[in-house]
Amino acid sequence: MPRVAMLYDVARLEEKMLAAELRGRAELELVHLPSQPLRLGEPPGGGVDAALVRAISLYRAVSSAAVAESWGAAVVNPPVPLMAAGDKLLTQALLERRGIPTPRALVAYTPEAAVEAAGELGYPVVFKPTVGSWGRLAALAGDGEAVRSIAEHREALGGPYKVHYLQEYVRKPGRDLRVICVGGRAVAAAYRVSPGGWLTNAARGARSIPARLDGEAEELAVGACEAVGVEVAGVDLVEDPERGYLVLEVNGVPEFKSLTSATGVNVAASIAEHVVWRARV
Amino acid sequence: MAKVKCPVCGGLVEVDDDALPGELVEHDCGVVLEVHRGPNGSITLKPFEGVEEDWGE
Hints:
The structure holds 2 protein chains of 2 kinds.
Chain A: E1 3-8, H1 13-23, E2 27-32, E3 50-54, H2 58-70, E4 74-76, H3 79-86, H4 88-98, E5 105-108, H5 111-121, E6 125-128, E7 139-141, H6 144-157, E8 164-168, E9 175-182, E10 185-193, E11 207-210, H7 215-228, E12 232-240, E13 244-251, H8 257-263, H9 267-280
Helix pairs in contact in A: 1-9, 2-3, 3-4, 4-7, 5-6
Chain B: E1 2-5, E2 12-15, E3 24-26, E4 32-37, E5 43-47
């Protein structure tokens, strides 16, 4: 039986479902990252064939994935694709390079340049941090004064917040589409319907309803995963009234409890099967 | 169900016997506690300090 490690920081419902599915298929080593040091080149229990990275924190995820690679394990997802997926700007750059449609975006490094970028994109404009999730710190700015104010606040926060990433506002039909991809195929999809605001994150109260996946959405979601290099991901697509689907984000450690509940698809089992397959090849 | 002492208020907290390390338990005193397991599998609780970034739904 292959040995699989699951690296995580919080045992949410997703991690509990994954642990249950992995236990039926492999010898499972739970690695709770806050509880113990990780040893480079020294796998826990004397050997690990594959590692599933489930840390909530981007930097914990990337660093623990790197340590797992030092064990000689197959890592899902590997550290560099995880970093690329965790940074929205890196993700979009990789998607653009592959020709996958995305909302138009500009990057600026000063508040003045951010105002110029917003003017080019038109108002309202989406002002996102390059890292983070649940829609946190994402802003919809209605004019240049708002853009300048947000940019100045971001400059005060420092670090990655000083990179001003502005995106056109897509007039989506009050929903977006979350597609879970595993090992090069789409396994489940659900619409996330906004309760009224412009954000459609489940963490912001969006409701998941099952979606029938059409060929175009599936092709784009799978292509987005290939562009970023992730094997397991939640890909967010938005429907533009004129251009069709645009890819918004690729989530390298996706939550899926709402989607599982809405669709009845056992996403945890699909992920566990893929990780065990990677352990064997 | 295991009964474990809350590190904040000292009251008893009920935790599932099969709880995973890293599971979160809310206690009546208002604190969120994180499950930890000792080498022998014993359960202890620590106040949850939170995490910063996520790829949420």
